[in-house]
Amino acid sequence: MKKLMMIAAMMLMSIGAFAQEAGEMYIKPMVGASIATITNVDNSKFKFGLVGGAEFGYHISDAFALTGGALYAMQGAGAKDDDLRKDASTTLSYINIPILANYYIFPGFAVKAGFQPGFLVSAKTKYTAGGHDVEYTGTDGYKKVDFSIPLGVSYEFSDFVIDARYNLGLTKIYDADSSSKTSKNSVIMLTVGYKIPL
After folding, report:
1. Is the dihedral of CA 24, 11, 193, 60 positive or negative?
2. In 3D, which of 166, 198, 179, 159 has the Cα closest to residue 30?
């Protein structure tokens, strides 16, 4: 009985905390960093990049919101040094379109999940071999559309939003004739945004 009363009290507190947010619309410019790698690639390591863009949000109910946006993200992977290549990395730049459901567990703190198509806009591989810098650019050999599942959490204070997400790659990033047929994107994104009411 005590447990039921505690749960009921917590639910009432949550409803009261979110009552003013129902029906709110906002746009949230955001910027941050990505920590990315490519799965099933020998000697791969994490690569750091930039993330930037904006999301539009709408609170459907007291504690539930939907967001959709457009984010430029630098993804790809680094590679461990070997006898032939040093400082190798592949940078894949995408325009990602995250569509997320946000559930507020308590004031300011939300968990989120959704679906994200991404569109490849550029690709660059570079490394050092024999004392010479080598660089390849172009999207040939890569699939132009990538799909992933974003999972994350966010915390809001004074209209600022700190967001942490993991994008779980669903689709292979290389064309069918590539030797790395099962490789997918795996990306952590850390951003700071600012909510502007509409």
Report:
1. negative
2. 159
Three-state secondary-structure class, residue 13: helix
| CA neighbours closer than 13 Å in the CB half-sphere of residue 114 | 21
> Per the structure block, which two tokens stand in for 34?
């990505």
State the distance between the two ends of the chain, measured CA to CA, in whole angstroms: 44
Encode pLDDT of 149-180 as tens digits.
999 999 999 999 999 999 999 999 988 655 56
| β-bridge pairing 132-137 and 99-106 | unpaired
Element of type H or E holding 7: helix 2-18
CA distance 170 to 149: 7
pTM, two decimal places: 0.84
Angstrom distance (rounded) from CA 182 to CA 111: 29
pLDDT confidence tier of residue 195, bands split at 50, 70 and 90? very high
